[in-house]
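Annotated sample (chain length 457).
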Amino acid sequence: MSLPERTEFLVVGAGPTGLACALSLHIHGCSDVTVVDAVQQGEDSSRALVIHSATLEALEAVGCAEPLVELGIKETKLRIWDGSRFNTIADFTKLAPYTKYPFVLVLPQFITERVLGEQVQKRGIRVCRPHKVIGLKINEHDTNMTDVTFEDGQIVTTRYVIGADGSKSAVRHAAGIRFEDPQPNSTSQDETPPSTAQMVLADVTFTEPPPREFQNMAFMFSPNNAFLWIPMPDCAYDDTPERVYRVGAGIPTSMGVPPHAPSASYVQDLIDRYGPVANKLPTQRSPQYAVAKVLWSTRYRTNCAIADTFFTRLGWTAAGNQYYFGGVVLLLGDAAHIHSPAGGQGMNLGIRDAIALGSALATHVAYTEPVVSPSEYRELDKPLREWSVHRRARGITVISLTKRLLSFAGVEDKSILYWGIVPVNWAKLRNIALNIVSNLPFVQRALAWRLSGLGNR
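Output written by the structure step:
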């Protein structure tokens, strides 16, 4: 679809966050919405894999929760193998009094994106591809409008630019918004446990079906590392008859930098080093866990950053009695905040940010009186400032949570002498604590509450 010359709302990025934002805007009466993306079609890979309760509640408001639930797998417990047994540390069924979605929904991101895209298409919202944004500037005829320049030289004039264009956001860069770790002295990237500072994820099939003990989501704490195991729904890869599993592990610095798209042999080595056999998990038979095929794989470094603000105006100057404030710029998803994938929080937070923005922007649009003074602009922009402050606080909460989860998973299995005489092994102490707290229902409920997003809507 070709680009329009003008649009009231320009959403940059057609991932789940951008599409959710477009739906929320349309439902709140904002019909002149255009979504643009730099690639011809969405990436056909699983990437984010879970949708939490609070996100499903938000998606219900844009008509997408039910079709997603029908497609995904409902996981009700988070289990961790500590070297001797499985510990249920989060029980999502205990959230039933608080939500109609007391589970974690396992569903690849591209399926989520597809469902959202179908709703966008039904509503007649424009999605234009491939069009890459390279710059923003204030429109010379109307200082409340922004001219968005694209790589091919086209320009779209808009009142609202919404950047949902990823961690390297061109919108954020053009608006001059800083993007930094909000807690640089608290488990920062430099302090991340060496085994989890870099990680690999892969979607794989096996030469023989894993035993029934591994038909549910599980995590394993092997010495000095953590290993992830998640069975995926049949819809994940329609052309693959075998069951597909998401596996993942930290990459210790001794292994060097992992390749961009790890091969089957590389993933096999991780499974052999840190997977079920290495952790001596008991099963009714002795499977080899031999990788048959890698359908998707990726590497990443675990770091955290958040934008100084999720809302600004492109720029303003004062000349005489006339004030020039510039068009509205907003940030969503990875353009606004990034962190480790621990707990599956990233896409979930971005979608909730996006859907919450719809009502704030609808309120902003409803203000129709002429605005010329700074005080009038402050009053006009109040809904967007409040949205920005509220959602940024939610982002900082998630960053803190993911840092703690990553530190917990990456505790090194070695003894340290305290006061020169007392040996302490933090990995063993962690596992003892797991054995104790996993038997406490209120702990299982509390962690489920934190991960679900219900306490951080």
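Annotation: The domain at 193-301 is CATH 3.30.70.2450 (Alpha-Beta Plaits).
Annotation: DSSP finds eleven helices and 25 strands in the chain.
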